[in-house]
Amino acid sequence: MTFNEQSPTDNGEVRTPVSRARSPRGFAAMDPQKQREIASLGGRAAHQSGHAHEFTTEEARAAGRKRHAKARGEDIGEPASSG
Question: What's the whole-model pTM score?
Answer without folding.
Answer: 0.37
